[in-house]
Amino acid sequence: MADRQQNPHAVMFPVPLQGHIIPFVHLALKLASEGFTITFVVTQAIHHKMTQARPITVEEEDMFTAARKSGLDIRYKTVGDGFPLGFDRDQNLEQYLEGFLHVFSAHVDDLLGQMVGTASPTMTCLISDTFHPWPSTLARKYNLVNVSFWTEPALAFSLYYHLDLLRINGHYDCHDKREDTIDYVPGVGGLEPKDLTSYLQETNTSTAMHRIVQASFKDVKKADIVICNTVQEMESKAILALQERQSFYAIGPLLPSGLAKSIVSPSFWMESDCKGWLDTNPSGTVLYVSFGSFAECNEEAVVEIAYGLLLSKVRFIWVLRPNTEKASLGNFLPLGFGDQIKEQGLVVPWCNQIAAISHPSVGGFLTHCGWNSVLESIWHCLPMLCFPLFTDQFTNRKLVVDDWRIGLNLCDRKPITRYEIAEKINNLMGGKISIELGKKIKELKGTMEHALSSTGSSENNFNQLIHDVKVKTLELGV
Question: Which of 447, 443, 309, 441 lies closest to 382 in space, CA to CA?
Fold first, then answer.
């Protein structure tokens, strides 16, 4: 029991998506800096993707090698997901998600079983992504403190948490879904159905993903602690309502700082170096365009965005992922687009987003509203032009545009036109609207900075998390 008290050892299981792994990495570094031993676990398929993007040398065993050299105790393990490496998870998504729901936990169970009695210090804590449906079972089996990590905003968590209310009131899983304002979810206030996450807007709720959501949010209610990558003051009503139900701590934003800046991000693709091109542009004149690591943009949207960028005459850097279906550099882009943009823009398959948006020349972000991108935009004071594609991005857009007023809405699920895109890009990058957006985002950046200060809410919540984990560890050791 003394070992458990002195050396907390957390085993971390992010969902195998880049947008989820990134905040898990930052949390691992932060906990390790406070004396935790961390065992960070990714699937073998994700490990393969990362090593393909950046081959690991003998000297660099994994992405935490530099952290260990600095004195942090972060171990790295891989686990099978039930499918061979050659299995195409993207093209067989429903089959893969069925495995994620029914098979993956057996592989996690095997790994934890191997670590029992062999890990030193002893495992004391399980930190798993909230979208995993199995943590309470395995935490109980191995006598571990069960911490659920939600990598999206508290608002999205609240909506999933209250699936029963949405169903009873006819806004979810109903043939004739209501279109009126949702005003009955605790701490949420008024919300339009278009601002629900995409999974909650869909009519077919029998898919594997819907069953994962239902199972995971039934399981999270058994967690000892829920932590969220947000800021108390930014989502106070939703968080206070959740705290009436269980221990819920806002510990964000989890962003790279200090040591994290020297550690290569867990990228799934080779990163282009954009600094040279960005250096040639005046301060605040470049629009950064990216739709993240997972969501797909259709052909019509890519074409209209391309022409919209041309019409706007605004300088831009556009990240078009190499594995975007059919849209690898060129297939969707208008013929001759590369020649037309000349010095106006740069199109790359992938880049280090933090490095790009922190560059002085970047002054705005055309984004899918992934939560990491939203937090990073606020931190770097970049107003956003919002083009959500799926999952929590519609809910995040509501926060950005309606609640915080730090961005503009591109469209509401209607076909976008090049002229509308050009007009909104120009509004974002110059004029009265951009000035107002800039003021609001600087205020919100200040809120974030204060939350992370020594007396701020996120720092206090993080310290409370550490205290609670240690207390609950002792309770389990009795």
Answer: 441
User: Exposed, middle or buried by CB within 10 Å (0-12, 13-18, 19+), for 273?
Assistant: exposed
C-alpha distances (whole Å) from 380 to each of 349, 433, 472 are 22, 18, 37
Sequence-separated (6 or more) residues with CB below 8 Å from residue 352? 265, 267, 271
Of the candidates 382, 347, 340, which has an alpha carbon nearest to the alpha carbon of residue 365? 382
- Cβ–Cβ under 8 Å, residues 450 and 456: yes
Q: Is the pLDDT of residue 325 over 60?
A: no
Tokens 């490990």, residue? 47
The 10s digit of each residue's pLDDT in 131-181 is 999 999 999 999 999 999 999 999 999 999 999 999 999 999 887 778 899
User: What is the per-residue pLDDT for 29?
Assistant: 94
Query: What are the Cα distances from residue 242, in Å, to 74, 218, 369, 471?
Result: 31, 15, 23, 22
d(CA 321, CA 191): 32
Residue 372 in 3-state DSSP?
helix
Residue 431's pLDDT band (cuts 50, 70, 90): confident
The set of residues, in sequence order, having a beta carbon less than 8 Å from that of 81 and lying 6+ positions away, is: 16, 43, 44, 45, 96, 99, 100, 103, 104, 107
